[in-house]
Write a structure and sequence with these properties.
The chain has one domain: 3-Layer(aba) Sandwich (Rossmann fold). Helices cover about 45% and strands about 20% of the residues. The chain has nine helices and seven strands. A seven-stranded parallel sheet has the order 3-2-4-1-5-6-7, with helices on both faces. The protein is globular.
C-alpha cells in the first residue's frame, strides 16, 4: 500500500513539474528568448562556461544560478554585468520548474535574447526535472574520472550537448577523454560531444556555434 502511494505522489509531482516547465517555455517564447540549461557535477566547469559565453557573444543574457546556496556562483556571474537571479534549493539537489518560474519573474525578460540556467552541481538529481529550456548541455570534466559518463547514463541520454572539459589535464589524472566521448556516443548517438579546455579557450567556439544554430 505504501509503495503504491509513493508512486502516485511521485507521478503527481512530475506531472505538475512538466506542466510548469511548459508554462516557463511558453513565457520565454512569448518574449522571443532562447533558454539553455547547464547541468554537471561540482567543479566540472559549468560556471566558467557560462562566464565565457557571456564574454564571447553579443547576446543580452540573463542567468538563473541554482545551488544549495546560490550566492557564490551568482556573485561570480554578476561581475560580468548581466542580470542574475540566485535560486537557492536548500536541501534539494536540483532545480525544478516552479523555482525557475519564480526566477524568470525577476529577470528583465523584455531586454533579453537568452536565459542561461545553471543547475545544481549534480549528475543524478536534475535528470527528471524539465525546466522549460530549449537546449540542455551537460558538462563533465576528465578530473571526475573517465568512467563518469558510463556511471551516469541517464543525464547523457537526455542532454543535447556533452562537453568533456579540462582535457588538458587528462594525462595528469590518468583519464582517457576519447573514452568519455565514445561512452557518450554509445548512450546517445545523436548527441553533440565537444572536448574542451575552457580555461584555455579550447572548444568554446564550437559550443557557441551549436547554441547559435539551435537558436535559428
Amino acid at each position: 500500500m505504501h509503495q503504491i502511494a509513493d508512486v502516485e505522489v511521485a507521478k503527481n509531482i512530475m506531472d505538475a513539474n512538466k506542466r510548469l516547465a511548459h508554462k516557463n517555455l511558453h513565457k520565454l517564447e512569448d518574449n522571443e528568448i532562447f533558454c539553455v540549461d547547464f547541468v554537471g557535477a561540482i567543479g566540472s566547469g559549468k560556471t566558467t562556461l557560462v562566464e565565457e559565453i557571456i564574454d564571447n557573444t553579443d547576446y543580452n543574457i540573463g542567468v538563473l544560478a541554482g545551488d544549495v546556496i546560490s550566492k557564490f556562483d551568482a556573485e561570480r556571474i554578476e561581475k560580468h554585468e548581466v542580470p542574475v537571479v540566485g535560486l537557492n534549493t536548500g536541501k534539494e539537489c536540483h532545480l525544478d520548474a516552479h523555482l525557475v518560474g519564480h526566477g524568470l519573474e525577476d529577470l528583465p525578460l523584455d531586454e533579453l535574447d537568452m536565459v542561461i540556467i545553471e543547475n545544481v552541481g549534480n549528475l543524478i538529481c536534475p535528470v527528471d526535472f524539465e525546466l522549460g529550456s530549449h537546449l540542455r548541455i551537460v558538462v563533465v570534466s576528465v578530473t571526475e574520472g573517465d568512467d563518469t559518463v558510463e556511471k551516469h547514463p541517464i543525464i547523457f541520454q537526455t542532454s543535447d550537448v556533452v562537453v568533456i572539459n579540462k582535457v588538458d589535464l587528462a594525462d595528469a589524472v590518468g583519464a582517457d577523454a576519447d573514452k568519455m566521448v565514445d561512452d557518450a556516443k554509445k548512450l546517445n548517438p545523436n548527441v553533440n560531444v565537444i572536448k574542451s579546455s575552457l580555461k584555455k579557450g579550447e572548444g568554446l567556439d564550437e559550443i557557441i556555434k551549436i547554441i547559435e544554430e539551435a537558436m535559428n
